[in-house]
Amino acid sequence: MLDPNFIRENVDKVREGMKKRGMDAGIVDKFLAADMEWRTYLTEEEGIRAQRNVLGKEDRERSGALKRELKEKEPLKKDAWMRREEFLRAIPNIPEARVPVGKDEEDNVELSSWGKIPKFKFEPKDHMELAGPLINKEKASEVSGSRFSYILGDLALLEFALIKYVFEKLLPHGFIPVIPPVLVKSKTMVGMGKTKFIEDEDAYYLPADDLYLVGTAEDSIGPLHSNEIIDIKELPKRYVGFSTAFRREAGTYGKDVKGILRSHQFDKAEMFSFTRPEDSVKENEFLLKMQEEIMRGLGLPYRVVYICTADMGFTATNQYDIETWLPSEGKYRESHSCSNTTDFQSRGLNIKSSEGEFVHMLNATGVAIGRMLIYILENNQTKDGKIKIPKALQPYVGKKEIKRG
Fold this sequence. Notes:
Radius of gyration: 25 Å
Binding site for ATP: 247-249, 334-337
CATH class of the largest domain: Alpha Beta
Shape: elongated
Number of strands: 17
Pathway: Aminoacyl-tRNA biosynthesis; selenocysteinyl-tRNA(Sec) biosynthesis; L-seryl-tRNA(Sec) from L-serine and tRNA(Sec): step 1/1
CATH topology of the largest domain: BirA Bifunctional Protein, domain 2
Oligomer: single chain
Strand order of the largest sheet: 1-11-12-13-15-10-9-4
Family: Belongs to the class-II aminoacyl-tRNA synthetase family. Type-1 seryl-tRNA synthetase subfamily.
Number of domains: 2
Largest sheet: 8 strands, mixed
CATH superfamily of the largest domain: Bira Bifunctional Protein, Domain 2
Binding site for L-serine: 216, 247, 270, 363
Helix content: 25-40%
Organism: Candidatus Colwellbacteria bacterium CG10_big_fil_rev_8_21_14_0_10_42_22
């Protein structure tokens, strides 16, 4: 969440940030009204307590009346606080000034591209045709429902190869490996600023336990230092986490149903950084650089896209995406995201440096397994239906080609 003091002192800037995102800025006025109401109750409460403190023993009747007044105002103060918090959590992070202003994904800006788009002398097959029996959606649908899959054989080996490859790329740069929980408390998700993820009904929720399944490892790596003070000398503190993630894919029904591009369950390696406030912009660029090194090592053609204000994540102040070439569709599709959330999440989780400032927090995809399997399959196919394994992954898989069954 944003600093309430910042909102009060920069109302026009906050409103402008929401308008750039294509959002109704009226929520800012609702927050300010509830905030003023809550602070008025606080002032009145302090005044009443001050009056009671100066009363003598002989003023019991007056003291009792003041006590009753305090009790009557308490639920009103609590109601104002709850409304204030609700409106505050509905205000997104403010985009950096350099972020391109746009209405939707069509206004995202390509910054660079790398690699040669493969030119096949045959009609390229999609990943489901290429994988054959290695991706079994039919049995998974029978067992679990739609948008689930069994990943088998060499594709399962390729997943572990990708994780090993990414970890070995990142560990020399000070990343700490972590396997985080995949269930988090509701207050933790709210602290991470995931209210939109929840409100859009994209999150899986277990009401009996008040727990959410994570939509990305970010959701449980970020809270690793909640309510802690990190020594300034330890910053930047970097993690690379591996976990299974879960999304309902709400709003995408009928879209990308055929393959494994949009699944309810997927595995992912995620980079996460805690930095000094003055270093987060630089760290954002560093994480993007790491993503590009990972992609270039795999030899997959990609482009870097600057995400516009309206398409950017709710918690982000700046966001880059990497889109990888998908031969069966003849276009680039998203494979990575890289975001700076500044102190938006650390404020909700109460994470500060030893200098007393809220740290800045950043997240970036290391590799989203399902999608990466698709790109490897389609970009490395041969006329006879074989799939070559990228050289960087061959030592981990132990072979040069994928065996389809």
